[in-house]
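Backbone-to-sequence.
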């Protein structure tokens, strides 16, 4: 299973890291699929706006709701997130060398969001790299059966892992024999079967 994750050392750090990584991998010629998060500060109205850019070329989708300065509830717009999931699903079906997901968050921990797409990519032996915060580590580890690799939150380390997992050298795709769906499904851990798992 080719599943890696990086934990942000500070708020928003992993978002910038994954966005830069996606650009670097695309420049190397890899087919990058997934989402990266863009945070925009809103000094006049509480916490930052959260957008995701659907890789490789967009669109950018606002996934946060403006609830005002006094709000303490979850600001995630679930409908907007599911719109992003649908776009990524279509692009994953067209083929990819790596799936990057900005965050395995509360929605994924509850069996929604990008959870099924992560499982689908793993079954298809497409490397998956996700951002993660400490709060969701237990749910993520349960989801993947503890088989994911924690990577240093540095662009060079993440890029090296992706290139190795994708079977590339110096950014050039190598010829790989992909297993049939039946072979891949039989090899996938039961805990990464998608929605409802863990």
């Amino acid at each position: 299973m080719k599943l890696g994750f990086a934990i942000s050392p500070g708020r928003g750090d992993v978002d910038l890291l994954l966005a830069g990584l996606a650009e670097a991998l695309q420049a190397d010629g890899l087919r990058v699929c997934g989402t990266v998060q863009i945070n925009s500060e809103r000094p006049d109205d509480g916490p930052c706006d959260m957008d995701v850019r659907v890789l490789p070329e967009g669109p950018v989708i606002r996934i946060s709701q403006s609830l005002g300065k006094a709000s303490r509830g979850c600001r995630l717009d679930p409908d907007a997130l599911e719109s992003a999931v649908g776009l990524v699903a279509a692009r994953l079906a067209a083929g990819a060398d790596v799936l990057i997901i900005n965050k395995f968050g509360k929605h994924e921990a509850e069996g929604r969001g990008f959870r099924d797409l992560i499982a689908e990519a793993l079954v298809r032996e497409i490397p998956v790299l996700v951002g993660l915060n400490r709060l969701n580590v237990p749910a993520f580890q349960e989801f993947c059966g503890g088989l994911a690799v924690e990577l240093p939150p540095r662009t060079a380390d993440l890029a090296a892992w992706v290139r190795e997992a994708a079977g590339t050298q110096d950014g050039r795709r190598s010829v790989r024999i992909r297993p049939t769906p039946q072979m891949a499904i039989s090899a996938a851990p039961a805990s990464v079967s998608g929605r409802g798992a863990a």
